[in-house]
Amino acid sequence: MAYAGDVTAQQAWDQLSSDRRSVLVDVRTPAEWSYVGVPELSALGKALVRVFWQGYPGMALNPRFADELARAGLSKDDAVFFLCRSGARSRAAAEAMTALGYKRCYNVADGFEGPRDGDGHRGRLAGWKASGLPWTQE
């Protein structure tokens, strides 16, 4: 595995709650942040870091991703939890940042919305929302 590992949304929340140097990075697109919702970390005294991994509509990689994380104040020693819709983009981000020397990069494996259920809907089976963790819609 080319990063620290996969975690559930609840495991990420628990670590964010107990480790003041841990950070949650939402790598989805600005449209997803606006229309689908975002994790709410204010109860932990933390702010969500939002840096998109791939841009819509072409889904090209964000060439400034690492620079934007550094500007957000992330240290290479912080526990960094990457989150996307369902775990694919966040895994790629965790791998990339590990390759750049970040030591504790984790993928929130089921993401914000999780896999589709039998009706084709996300957000019911697993992930941040389905786990009942705090979130908000803008």
> What is the helix fraction of residues, given as a range?
25-40%
Q: Strand content of the residues, in percent?
A: 15-25%
Instruction: Give the C-alpha Rg.
Output: 14 Å
Helix count, DSSP H or I runs of 4 or more residues: 4
Major sheet details: 5 strands, parallel
Element pattern in H and E: EHEHEEEEHEHEE
Cross-sheet strand order for the largest sheet: 1-8-7-2-4
How many strands in all? Answer: 9
Q: Regions with pLDDT < 50 over 5+ consecutive residues?
A: none
Q: Based on helices, strands and strand pairing, what is the structural class?
A: alpha/beta
Mean pLDDT, all residues: 94
Q: Please report the distance between the alpha carbons of the first and last residues.
A: 35 Å
Spatial shape: globular
Structure, explained:
By secondary structure, the chain is of the alpha/beta class. Helices cover 25% and strands 20% of the residues. The chain contains 4 helices and 9 strands, in the order βαβαββββαβαββ. The chain has helices spanning 9-18, 30-35, 65-71, 88-99, and strands at residues 5-7, 23-26, 38-39, 49-50, 54-55, 60-61, 79-83, 104-108, 135-136. It has a 5-stranded parallel β-sheet with strand order 1-8-7-2-4. A hairpin with a 4-residue loop joins β5 (54-55) and β6. The longest helix is centred in the C-terminal third of the chain and has 12 residues, at 88-99. The radius of gyration is 14 Å and the shape is globular. The N and C termini lie far apart (35 Å). The model has no long low-confidence stretch (mean pLDDT 94).
